Amino acid sequence: MERLLPSFKQIIQSLRMGTVSGPILIHFNHHDEDGNRDAVDHGDFLMPYWKEFAAALTHWSEYHADEISLKVFVCFIEIPKAVLDVLRPAFEQSRIESFFFRGSRHPGDMADFVTSVLQTNLYITTVGFAGIAFVHEDLEAIYHRAIKSRNAAGQITKILQLQQLSGCFQDGIETETLEMILASVSTAAASKEVTLYLDKNGMSSREAVVIAEFLSSNPTLTALNLSDNRFDNADAAVLANSLSSNTNLRELYLENDEIKKNGRFAFLHAMFDVSSLASCAASNHTCRVWILQEDPSALINNRELISMNKWEKIFAMLALSGGDSFINTSLLEGVPAHLIPMLLNKADFGANEEDDPRVTDLYLELTNIIRSKKHDVWDNLGKTKPINCMYELMRCWVVPLIFA
């Protein structure tokens, strides 16, 4: 409490003076007997401060906001209905672009508060929650009465997204509820980047099927956090298959799940299929998958330009599968002649100039090949890698014609 009150007072003063900068964080760092963070109820004691905060928020919005909108985070402080009733008018009227609540034990009251605020305050574009045990009816009210109706208005209002539900369900998410959460992402289609956090919800096979079907539809979701759930190798295979038709997802987090070697391989094959050059070209080139910390597989698809990810893999296959030859031109059999100039052009575009052996390591892992001197040479070519690729391609094609 000795840390919370000075911070709370400083936030109120900054709002009053118009000197607030950055997100507003009202946070109480308390741990239970087991050492876990826990929301503490100081409703009656803090009520005067909540009233001052609500008044200061309204004052800032009226006199200091200009074109700025605030981000508000309230974490590990119990927020009963009496406090929500105090905050509601300020949240409905103030220039807030996003808010996040963590650790409240009053999910029904929170859902009523959020629904009312979102219906009224059209500045808000993202909301998130963690550690709040919502039931289906709570989220149904938030989605149908606020998010769906707001987004259906199109250009009349700003697009609204439910961005985070972390640790809000202990034993998984019912299918109907999960489909509704994912639908809220679909209605946020006008957003440039759409992120969804569903970590720490006890999800497993039932949810994997629903999420995979959603990802297969290629929604505008750009990042999805599924860490700290119960997904296993079979679930990983289901999720990995959905990436074959997805070109929008850029980040997928599955850290601290129950995914082992086979599940990791399923994602590797989805992103870097080495069975043939055509399969490699048809792999997913947009998504980075995070399963283990420091996993070299996260290096795949790490370039901003999707086409660079694709051609980096193709040239790695051509160079690393060639036996004694620098380039394995046998993989190019059947490639139409009119595409050969494109291949030469992409040698400069796709051959990775960085001396990073991890892509090579992944290729060797996927093909079960032991690293040799040839692979070390490829990894250490540096800036000469593109010109070496072009030279070898031309030599392999032209020299046989001279002596034909």
Automatic annotation (TrEMBL):
Looking up PANTHER family in the UniProt record yields:
LEUCINE-RICH REPEAT-CONTAINING PROTEIN, LEUCINE-RICH REPEAT-CONTAINING PROTEIN 34
Name of the featured protein: Uncharacterized protein
Listed SUPFAM superfamilies: RNI-like
What keywords sit in the KW lines? Answer: Repeat
